[in-house]
Amino acid sequence: MKYSQYFIPTIKDSPADAELTSHKLMVRAGMIRKLAAGIYNILPFGLKAIRKVENIVRDELNKAGAVEVFLPSIQPSSLWEETGRWLQYDLELLRVKDRHDREFCYGPTHEEVITDLVRNDIKSYKQLPVNLYQIQTKFRDEIRPRFGIMRAREFTMKDAYSFDATDAGANISFEKMVQAYDNIFQRCGLQFRGVDADSGAIGGDFSREYMVLAESGENEVAYCNSCDYAANVEKAKVLYKENIESTVPEEQLEEVHTPGYKSIEEVANFLKVTPADCVKCLIYETEEEMIALLIRGDRQVNEIKLKNFLGVETIALASDELIYKTLQLTTGYLGPVGMKISVYADNELQENRTFVTGANKDEFHLKNVDLSRDAQIKGYGDFRNIEANDPCPSCGKHGINFCRGIEVGHVFKLGTKYSEKMNATFLDQNGKSQHFIMGCYGIGIGRTVAAAIEQNNDDKGIIWPKEIAPFHVHLVSLFNKDSDLMEASEKLYNELIEAGVEVLWDDRNESVGKKFKDADLLGLPLQIVFGKPFQEEKQVEITERKTLTKEKFPLNKAVEIITKKLS
Fold first, then answer.
1. Interval 313-339 mean pLDDT
2. From 244's CA, which of 323, 343, 496, 552 has a CA 20 to 30 Å away?
3. Going by C-beta distance under 8 Å and a sequence separation of 6 or more, which residues neighbour residue 238?
4. DSSP secondary structure code for residue 166 in this structure
5. In 247-381, at which residue ranges do the beta strands (DSSP E only) sit?
6. Is the pLDDT of residue 345 over 80?
7. Residue 429 has what DSSP assignment?
């Protein structure tokens, strides 16, 4: 493609609202342009990279036995009401009405639509298994869209859905997709990890996220140095080893005046104990009730774990005003002794020891609180974040590390969550009606491109992995007025195209500095420069964008050398 005939509106400065490097570079490199909050025009240079990812995805999914479909983006509310998600999805679901006042939504995902399709057309176990996928536009009305197309409201997604007759068959389908995902992200040239994750709004029995490793990632990943365990921190289990027998001497509760001291740090300093000797008491509000949660003073609550343990749809810290109105208690002095609502405690608080807690009385705390003796605990569970000194949940050895990741894919074992709610059934070998056992598998296509840029860049611009680079070669002709140089450039341009190499030829009448800066910004794997070495020695200069190493070669060997470097 000749640059002069292409549309790559590069700019020098980053947009003011861009936070991530990938967002800045995608705007500067003329890949995207903002239309509205979280909604972007995808320009030709960006679209070529997206299509490269799509082609890799299609190739690997087809190999895994999945079959491509294309489903409507506008979905009737009736399907979502069958699963109960019409109200559960809340504000992220963009709801619209047609001229007949019928309600629809702009699909953020397609579990309902695909389940409806399959229940109407697949009736027998003989037609199973089946795995259907699509690459299509989705819309989620994010509260705070940001990071360019990394967290946009409208985005391109590959979503696949498997249907099986048995659990064993569903596990086989799931493992095929796990392998396909490993292949996809390897072929995209990314450093990534597959990690255990929470299933979130999609639901199901088990899910696995695919994280592109990058310091700018929104997700924190815990992984083990001794085995291959990795999990999103919100999912990572904390092992608890029960104490065999209490060795704590009997000590009576002691009420202590703590004037003005509310935080764990303040109370610990005042009473000359450590935060680990204190218990935080937090009040949470769910759609069903208010509950109190106890956790050691030096730990952080994992609200995802708490939400899953309670089996609720929503959970949030109760406001100070609500706590006082409902319980007549003041935040900062809350404790489990005499608490009038259900109390849950982190497993770690089963330790055979006493703690300092709030006294449920303004400006007072309690010492020597034995939770088994002095409080009514409704249930214990794993409610905290894993930490570096915790043992690995898989192998039990110590050595948990942490890194940041960008989620680019997610695979779920759905079981019969959707098929039961939508009465999607087939007849088994015995002629009995059974619900389909499902899996679903998503990849953010545009997000994968953005994550690749986030992982591969320098202060000059993008450094494309070869496999998803919009072009393989950036051919730069520095002196447009030199007819010999331009003729030789065009000849090499045509020869490379004939050899199957994708080339962007900068034939513009621009300054040398502008051409070099744009070449570095766009970041194609190889830069081929026609400049003074050609004028003086009939040589071209080849630069590998990743390493910035430069070499000179005779023009008559350029095609051979370039194709060899790209192979």
1. 94
2. 343
3. 347, 348, 382, 384, 385, 386, 390, 393
4. S
5. 254-257, 279-286, 290-296, 315-317, 342-346, 355-358, 364-369, 379-381
6. yes
7. T
Which domains are assigned to the chain?
Answer: 8-237+402-454 (3.30.930.10), 254-381 (3.90.960.10), 471-566 (3.40.50.800)
Q: How far apart are CA 231 and CA 33, in angstroms?
A: 35
d(CA 348, CA 300): 12
Sequence-distant contacts of 350-355: CB under 8 A, at least 24 apart: 350/240, 350/242, 350/243, 350/380, 351/243, 352/243, 352/245, 352/246, 352/247, 352/248, 353/248, 354/248, 354/251, 355/277, 355/278, 355/279
- What distance in Å separates the CA atoms of residue 236 and residue 392, rounded to the nearest whole number? 9
pLDDT tens digits along 365-422: 999 999 999 999 999 999 999 999 899 988 988 879 999 999 999 999 999 999 999 9
Residue 525, preceding peptide bond in cis (omega within 30° of 0): no
Helix or strand holding residue 516 (H, E): helix 512-522
**Mean pLDDT of the region 25-39:** 97
- Assess contact for 360 and 258: CB atoms under 8 A: no
Long-range (24+ apart) CB contacts under 8 A made by 47-53 are 48/470, 48/471, 49/449, 49/452, 49/464, 49/468, 49/469, 49/470, 50/156, 50/445, 50/446, 50/449, 52/467, 52/468, 52/469, 52/470, 53/188, 53/445, 53/448, 53/449, 53/468
Neighbours of 301 (CB within 10 A): 17
- Strand arrangement, sheet containing 94-97: 74-76, 103-106, 94-97
Residue 244: predicted pLDDT: 45
Percent of the chain beyond pLDDT 70?
Answer: 97
Separation between Cα atoms, residue 435 and residue 16, nearest integer Å: 51
Statement: residue 511 has pLDDT above 80: yes
Residue 301: name the closest of 342, 348, 361 by CA. Answer: 348
pLDDT 10s digits, 371-385: 999 999 999 999 999
Which helix (H) or strand (E) segment holds residue 428: the answer is: none
Phi, psi of 43 (to 5 degrees): -90, 170
Q: What is the pTM (predicted TM-score) of this model?
A: 0.86
What's the DSSP call for residue 353? S
Per-residue pLDDT tens digits for 154-210? 999 999 999 999 999 999 999 999 999 999 999 999 999 989 876 555 455 578 899
Question: How distant, in Å, are the alpha carbons of 103, 220, 374, 466 from that of 210?
Answer: 34, 12, 45, 21
Task: Provide the pLDDT confidence category of residue 426 given band limits of 50, 70 and 90.
Answer: very high
On the CB side of 208, CA atoms within 13 Å amount to: 18
Report the distance separating Cα 504 and Cα 158, nearest Å. Answer: 28
Q: In percent, how much of the chain has pLDDT > 90?
A: 86
Instruction: Look at the block and give the residue holding tokens 């200069």.
Output: 541
**Per-residue pLDDT at 235:** 85
Number of Cβ within a 10 Å radius of residue 2: 14
The single-letter DSSP state of residue 384 is: B
